[in-house]
Amino acid sequence: MAKPLIQMALDSLDFDQTVGLATLVAPHVDIFEIGTPCIKHNGINLVKELRARFPEKLILVDLKTMDAGEYEATPFYAAGADICTVLGVSGLATCAGVIKAANAYGAEAQIDLINVEDKVACARATAEMGAHIMGVHTGLDAQAAGHTPFADLNDITRLGLNVRVSVAGGIKPSTVQDVVRAGANIIVVGAAIYGAASPADAAREIRELVDAV
Ligand SMILES: O=C([C@H](O)CO)[C@H](O)[C@H](O)COP(=O)(O)O
C-alpha cells in the first residue's frame, strides 16, 4: 500500500499567518488544507496564493458544502484546488454536484462524514456515485465534548470501498501510528502542529512516525 499522505489543517483566520505556517511545514507535509473558518474568512484568493507559492503540493479546500454543490465548488477547482469537501449530511444530489465539478477539473471530491448518522450507508452510497475520498471526521466541537474518530475509521476502512480514506479529529503523535495501522490513506493534523512550540518540528515528527509504520 502507498504511504499515507499527511495533510496540514490550516485553521488560522489570518491570511499572512496561514501562508507563513504553510511555508514552515511544507517540507514535511503532502497536502495543505485550507480549513473551513479560514476559507470563509479569506476566500478564494488564498487558494490562488497557495497554488502559486506551492505548485508541487496538493491543496484541499474544506468547503464543507451543504447545497449547490457544483456551483459552489467549481470556482475553487478552477482556482487550483485539488480536493474540495462536501458534507455527507447535505444529501446525494449535493455530493453528486461536487463530484461532477471535481471530475470536470481532473480533481477529487471528499465526502465529509461529520455528523452523518449512518456513516457506512453514506460512504457506500457516495462511493458508488464516484466520490474519490471518504473523510472520517470528528470536528473541533465534538472533540471538545470528548469524541474521537477512531471507531468510525475502523467502520469505514473495513468496508473496502474503492476510495481513499482520510481521518481528522485531534490526531497527534501518540495516535498517528494507530490511524495508519487502521488503514487511513490521508492523515489530517491541525492543532498538534500549529499549536506546537515549533510547528516545523512537530510536522517533522508526524512524518517520521508515519514513515516508521
Ligand atoms: O476540519 C477541521 C475542523 O472542522 C475545522 O474546520 C479541522 O481542520 C480538523 O479537525 C483537523 O484539525 P485538528 O482536529 O486540530 O487536528
TrEMBL record:
Residues 5-206 form the Orotidine 5'-phosphate decarboxylase domain. Pfam families: OMPdecase. Its EC number is 4.1.2.43. GO terms for molecular function: hexulose-6-phosphate synthase activity. Pathway: One-carbon metabolism; formaldehyde assimilation via RuMP pathway; D-fructose 6-phosphate from D-ribulose 5-phosphate and formaldehyde: step 1/2. Transmembrane segments: none annotated. Keywords: Carbohydrate metabolism, Lyase. It catalyses: D-ribulose 5-phosphate + formaldehyde = D-arabino-hex-3-ulose 6-phosphate. Gene3D superfamilies: Aldolase class I. Belongs to the HPS/KGPDC family. HPS subfamily. This is 3-hexulose-6-phosphate synthase.
